[in-house]
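Why do we bother with holo predictions? Because pocket geometry can differ from the apo form. Keep that in mind while you read this record for zinc ion.
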Amino acid sequence: MDILDLVFPKRCVNCGRWGEYVCEECQVGMWEEEQICPTCCRNSRYGERHKYCRGELEGLTCLWAYEGIARKLITKAKYSGQFDVLEFLISNFPFDSAQGEQFFYFKKFLETNPIIVPVPLHPKREKERGFNQATIVASLIANRYSLVVKNLLTRVKDTGRQVGKKREERLKAMSGAFELSRDTPYVIPNTILLVDDVWTTGATLRECAKVLRRGGAKQVWGLVLAR
Ligand SMILES: [Zn+2]
Ligand SMILES: [Zn+2]
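The structure, written out:
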């Protein structure tokens, strides 16, 4: 047992039982998400972009369905600052299960040793919240696959809350929202794994991928904790 477990004992977010963020019984309420094409958002077996779809994201890997318990956990991390909740979501994800074949292309992509880039928050928002969930997910994935995280992007436009906005409004708000960081090396890595916590319309990841591709990246693959 971790010393932190004594100081901040964990409770199941669903039933309140002490011990874990999700007790064994409640874990049945966590669903793995199906993979989609990052351009048209229709099903795609391995999360790769359809041959007939155009776009800057090569593929997309979604872990959990953004509902039920996974949603409760992500919300908890966001508002309580308990990052280890996110760790629970990643370490309990069955990457190598029977259904794990949906990650075939994702794993192939990982073999290129991509640099992991988190989707940045606007500095003002990050200051308000104290942390960026995407950065935490990025470092957890980096640890898992022995990869390196680099903050290659900055958010130059404060797009505000996107919840409740129409699709067109979101797309418009995202345009020009990101730039390459000033401390970005002249040479952008060939392959980049772009990481965020949640995929809603995909406007954010697509916009980030566009900036990275324009900067010289050859392939950008997205990964989100939930969709
Ligand atoms: Zn429970
Ligand atoms: Zn498609």
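The helical segments are 3-7, 68-80, 84-91, 104-110, 123-129, 133-145, 167-174, 203-214.
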